[in-house]
Design goal:
The chain is α+β, with helices and mostly antiparallel strands. The protein is 20% helix and 33% strand. The protein has a single domain, classed as Alpha-Beta Plaits (2-Layer Sandwich). It has a five-stranded antiparallel beta sheet with strand order 2-3-1-5-4. The relative contact order is 0.31.
Length: 87
């Protein structure tokens, strides 16, 4: 028997180890498709206290899939960022 089910496509990433990086720096980096593989940002949330940010993209049809973005070793303002995919 064949069954169908709805699969959620991730549209956001969680960025850890942001340290003293500014909101603008993170947003500009992930909006730039050539640099990060990201794209237009739908929503951006940042917690300086917990040193992470959540970046939700407008669509998943950008230059790269989020799984590829999450595999990049990203160094931004002397911080090695850790990326995970969120749903």
């Amino acid at each position: 028997m064949i069954s169908l089910r709805h699969v959620l496509v991730p549209t956001s990433i969680q960025v850890f180890n942001i340290g003293s990086i500014t909101t603008d720096s993170i947003q500009l980096y992930f909006e730039h498709t050539r640099t990060s593989g990201g794209g237009d940002i739908k929503q951006f949330t940042m917690s300086k206290q917990h040193r992470y940010a959540i970046v939700e993209f407008c669509d998943t049809q950008g230059q790269y899939s989020l799984s590829v973005v999450a595999e990049f070793k990203i160094i931004l303002v002397k911080h090695v960022l850790m990326i995970t995919i969120t749903h």
